[in-house]
Amino acid sequence: MVDIRALILAIDRDDDFGKKAGVEGPVIGREECIDAALKLSLADPEDSDANVVYAAVKLYDELKDSGEFEDVEVALITGDPKVGVKSDMELARQLEEVLERFPADGIITVTDGAEDEQIFPIITSRVPIISSHRVVVKQSEGIETTYYVLYRYLKEIMSDPGVAKIVLGVPGMVILFYGLARLLSVVYPDKAKIVSAVVTGTMLLLIGVYFFTKGFHINVKKSLSNIRQALAQQAIVVMSFIAGLSIIVGGAINAYFRLEEYALDLIGSYPGTPLLQGLIYVNAIAAPLVLGIAVMIGGKIIQAYLKRDYHIWYYTSALVLMPALWVTLDLTTRYAMAILTISNIDIFAKLILAIVDVALAVIVGAYLRGKVRGWEKVEVGAGS
C-alpha cells in the first residue's frame, strides 16, 4: 500500500451539471457524485459529463477495493458557462474547498476532453496529479480533440474584434465588392471593364490601407482624435497664431507691392541695389512683423491665464518687449542704409524708448513671477 491520500477528481469546466441539472459544485463523496450524475443523465441523456462522474466513481471503487492507497475520495468540481477566466477561478475555489475537507497528497483527474484538461496547471499548483483519465463516450478521442480545437478557434475569431476584422471582415469586404462589381456589370454591360477596374482598384486600395496601418501600428481613429483634442485645448493659441501669421503675411505682401513708395519715403529715390532693396523691405515689414508676433504672444497669455500656467509672466514680458523689437529693427535698417547717424536726435529718442521698454518688461516679468508663484505649486501638484 502506498502511503498517499488520493483524490479522484471529475471536472466539468462549462458547468453542465449546474445549467442542466441544477447541481452546485463541489460534490464530494461516492453517493453524492452518483446522485449528481443521475440528475444530469435524466436532464440530458446524451451529455458525456455524467459518464465522467460514473467513470470517476468506478475508479474510486476499484482503488478502494485494491487498497493501493492509504485513503481514497471522489469529488466533482464545476466551473461556469462562460468558459475562461471566470470558470477557472470557480474551479480553483471549489478545489480549495474539496482539499479542505479531504487534504489529498495526489489527484487522479477524470475528464471527457481537452477543454477540461486546460485547468491542469491550476490543479498542479496545489496538489500533484498522479494520473489522468479521459472518458470518450460519443466519439473517438481524435474527433473530440479536433472539434475542441476548431471550436476554440472559431470562438476566438467571433469574440476578438481584432481577429474577426482580419479573418472575417477582409474576406467579407472582398466578396461584397466582387458582388457589387458583378451587379453593376449586368446593369452597364458596355462599361463592364471600367466598372471592374474601378471596383477592383477601390478594393485593393482599402485593403492596402488597412494592412499598412495595421502593419505599422497606425491607429487612424486615435490619431485624428488626438489632433482634434489638441486643437480644442489650444483653440485660443491656434486662432491667435493664424491671426498673427495673417498680419505678417499681409504686411509682407503689402510691403512688396509698395516697395518703391517706401523707398521714396525713406531715401528719396528708387533702390538701386538688391541689398538696399532688402534693407528697405525689412524696414517696411518691421511693424506688421512685430504686430503679428504680439498677437501670437497675446493668445499664449490668454491661454496661460485660463489654464493658470505659471509661465504667463514669461509670455507677458515678451509681449511688453515688442516695441523694443520694432525700434531695434527700424533703427538697425535705417542706420544700415546710412540715412541717419548715432548723433541724430531721432535715434537717441528711440533708443531711450527701447531701453525704457526693456526695463519695463523686466519689472513686469519680475512682478508677475511673484504673483503667480502659487500657480507653479498647483501645476506641480496636479502633475504628480
Report on the structure:
It is a single chain. The two termini are 65 Å apart. The protein has a 5-stranded mixed β-sheet with strand order 2-3-1-4-5, with helices on both faces. It has 3 domains: 2-148, no CATH class; 160-215; 228-379, no CATH class. It is elongated and about 125 Å long. By secondary structure, the chain is of the alpha/beta class. Helix 2 packs antiparallel against helix 3 (48-66) and helix 10 (235-257) packs antiparallel against helix 12 (274-307). Residues 377-384 have low confidence and may be disordered. The longest helix has 34 residues, at 274-307. The chain has 16 helices and 5 strands.
Order of helix and strand elements from N to C terminus:
EHEHHEHEHEHHHHHHHHHHH
Tell me the radius of gyration. 42 Å
Strand share of the residues?
5-15%
Shape: elongated
Please tell me the overall pLDDT. 81
Largest sheet: 5 strands, mixed
Helix content: over 70%
Total individual domains: 3
- Number of DSSP-assigned strands: 5
| Number of helical segments with 4 or more residues | 16
Class per helix and strand makeup: alpha/beta
Question: Which regions have little confidence, pLDDT < 50, spanning 5+ residues?
Answer: 377-384
For the terminal residues, how far apart are their CA atoms? 65 Å
The order of strands across the largest sheet is 2-3-1-4-5
